Amino acid sequence: MRIAMLSYRSKPHCGGQGVYVRHLSRELTALGHEVEVFSGQPYPELDEGVGLTKVPSLDLYREPDPFRVPRLREFRDLVDVQEFLVMCLAGFPEPRTFARRISRIMKERAGEFDIAHDNQVLGHGLLDIEGYGLPLITTVHHPITYDRRIDLAQTRHPWRKITLRRWYGFLRMQGHVARKARWILTPSETSKRDIATDFGVDPAKMQVILLGVDDMFVPPPADRPRVPGRIMAMASADAPMKGISTLLEAFAKLRTERDLELVLVTKPQAGGRTEKLIEKLGIGPHVRFVHGISDAELVELMGSAELACVPSLYEGFSLPTAELMACATPLVVSRAGAIPEVVGDDGVCAQLVAPGEVDALKQAIAGLLDDPERRARMGEAGRRRVEEMFSWRAVAVTVAAAYEKVIADFGSEVGSEKEN
Q1: CB 241 within 8 A of CB 314
Q2: CB-based contact 91:165 (threshold 8 Å)
Q3: Exposed site from 67, 115, 179, 336, fewest CB < 10 Å?
Q4: What number is the average pLDDT over the span 401-405?
């Protein structure tokens, strides 16, 4: 099959979308399919044999100057103008404007592909694509309505609540497009349930396909011991939904009793809530941020921690959790969203705690740090679970079968219309 994969942003190592695009496109190519990725900035890292067509935006949220004001010569058309004006009005324009750009492209190129695969863009412009004769399938990792609820609940300033509601204004559009989608792929039963509830999508139009873990994620070699007292987490530090504030408060309490180091694989916003909380708690010398590292360095870091923590308040899947399990790193995780689906709900592969509970998180981490035999058993069990359940090759095979179903359904529908 000839596949057009659509992603409005594809950050290579975090955020889910870029990781999904890279590994799924690689495995589909290995199965003999032709894949071309269409992406806005940040562009994905792709493997040999996978094509990339850049669909540039104004890149208004790039580091280190997010919410920047573009120069006049950067504006190419009215879509760029719309993108800038929506940002100025506190909205998030990228899904909408990427969909308009991709609609233009597919109007000219639809005949080159057998199917288009939307990676949670859910913009109005995508509804044009089937009109060009190209069937469309959609992946929704989780409904961003959860991010909105958590952000609003943790915001006290009235004006900030107003701007947050404006920022999440694109969700009305996403819900509308999701309800019109022909077929939706989602990575967990939790996400399927929440998409049906929050977006009003018919569950009969959704299919759960678990995500995979790349083969590069492996336990550390026997001659490389884990660093005593090292705790790590992989999360966007300034997104309330990721629960980093809960972890920082628990870590601060643990630091009064133990010699510990916290490594956060993220780049915090300068002067943001995470940096302010670290300063308030007085733990700055013991918290280290890591970002911009290679895949090999990331695997080495995951394998160096005595334990890792996933304190999220909600996850539609949590790929980093599965990657840490693949590295045989023992885990303390929130019983939130789809995390129990990833680790299992029996406490064998991870210690589960109530989300947002500082003392419960502190006690769970302390208990695991004091029990090296349990850490070893947990790490081994996590590794086995990944080997048994999470394979990108299996994901690609199942996704390809879904493509064939959608292509057949679309063909039948077009044929019926012609007969009538």
Answers
A1: yes
A2: no
A3: 67
A4: 98
